[in-house]
């Protein structure tokens, strides 16, 4: 009997069914890889297991007993621990304090605390200072602290979600050594990764998810990278395909330098849509943010961009991935959000001319088909898709020449997704240059004239239309060099 069994797990988010009756079994002392494209349901399934999400249907058994954790703490007490992509550490506490979080006594004796931390880190062969604040460590070292904290809980099941995204080669070797040690101690390890070379190096078995369903579970020795990609991509589905049209003259060139990113030069043509592909931590997001002045430094047409205000002055606008935290002020009206970046152009003697403001807002509400068409409604009350339209309206109101987009259709329904694609095509035909960073391979293939594939902080391939989904997935995962 398997140590852990998940049967018929279903989970819906609004109108999207993220999990459609998924089964998964983990054996004691095995490393079981979960693979699939973004949105396939891997992280959602593991969040159900870890207590972070409640399933709509299905059952879980651990050691032959029902497991129904109402939260993460209950799952951890039962023996299920998950190491997330987003680190759940407290930056201003020390390494030792973070390792003991949840178990700190009312009165902390730091000598004993540091001694226990040193013993744990030594057992794991990690050379990390117990008394250093986590905020002083690099991203890779912070990830290893999170792993050490999970390791200390002596779990029966440990889940790793893209754990190597921020690690150096040496840190990856350390992590793999720790995971293999967990296997020898009888722990069941679930390992999520887009990097196929890691799967073939680590895993005993592989489960492939596609569109919220399990399509295969098999021993890693029975698979090849090409076969995994074929299972991930699956059947042909109706996909958006942007009509071909020639790009115009070169608008300008981005010269980008940023931490953990090899120097990048990108010449962008008028009317062209360039895609950036890669897994989390590959460098695609860092490159896009540098072009807008959020990190590192960039040149556009030889002019420096060190801050977002520099980008706006050079008619470069970024539509961020997190529309709620970075794109909108949720407690302001939709109208106020749309004009937020162009207020000086609407003023006369320091006062906003309402007629000008109304014309701008009405134009973009109509062009983007924002629903409901109520500019006075608070931004937080719009659906996710219409919030994304508000962010686009805010950017387009600045009359940009270059539009940068990070995950432009994340969290929007299919109908709205097609509306966004049609709009981006219309903008490109109108002469804008667009750069789209996306984890959605189908989106990149249907929308872009060419795609730059990032791995390890550098561009490893440049693919031009017509783009094949299988080839992009193979390049991103490393199945093809």
From TrEMBL:
Transmembrane segments: none annotated. SUPFAM superfamilies: P-loop containing nucleoside triphosphate hydrolases. Keywords: ATP-binding, Cell membrane, Membrane, Nucleotide-binding, Repeat, Sugar transport, Translocase, Transport. It holds the Pfam family ABC_tran. Residues 4-236, 245-481 form the ABC transporter domain. It comes from the Bacteria. One of its GO terms (molecular function) is ATP binding. This is ABC transporter ATP-binding protein. It comes from Anaeromyxobacter oryzae.
